[in-house]
Design a protein that fits this description.
Helices cover 48% and strands 11% of the residues.
Length: 168
């Protein structure tokens, strides 16, 4: 897996017109594995805690490396998650339906009972929809690139979920 990310980083560096250098590739790898690289949004932990307290099962679906579970532990998010699904263990990256289907299978729910929230229109919103999940696009700035349910913050999602539960 480390070689895969190294090759991706090498292609990006070359595409940007820089000369390929092993030291740069090593530094990129090291930066993505340091705790200061990853910090949750300020509202994230309270949001996850609140959802868990009312019975939601929560998980992460990511194209990140196998270091993801440790990263989530270090950031304080892991205790609120029931599942962690990442591309290299599943053999498919978002937006491929396989990674979404693997995640909902781990959660023990059918796709039509799952809601995926993500900040990439193509990888998250369109990927989740193609796998049969409900989806909301987290668009903190600007406008969504296409028609879809969208929110600006996790607080807005809380309001949507409360409204949905009250209609049942």
């Amino acid at each position: 897996v480390a070689e895969y990310y190294r090759s991706v980083n090498a292609r990006v560096i070359e595409h940007l017109g820089f000369e390929l250098d092993d030291a740069i590739l090593d530094e990129i790898h090291n930066q993505f594995n340091t705790p200061v690289t990853w910090k949750p949004y300020p509202e994230a932990i309270d949001f996850l805690r609140d959802l868990r307290s009312v019975g939601y099962r929560l998980g992460v679906i990511s194209n990140a490396s196998p270091a993801l579970p440790e990263t989530l532990r270090r950031t304080g998010l892991a205790p609120y998650l029931d599942t962690i699904t990442y591309s290299s263990e599943v053999g498919a990256e978002k937006p491929h339906p396989k990674i979404f289907r693997a995640a909902v299978a781990r959660a023990g729910i059918p796709p039509e009972r799952a809601l995926h929230v993500g900040d990439s229109y193509e990888a998250d919103y369109l990927g989740a929809r193609s796998a049969g999940l409900h989806a909301v696009f987290l668009c903190r700035e600007g406008q969504p690139p296409g028609p879809c349910p969208s929110i600006r913050s996790l607080a807005e999602l809380s309001a949507l979920l409360r409204a949905g539960r009250s209609r049942k």
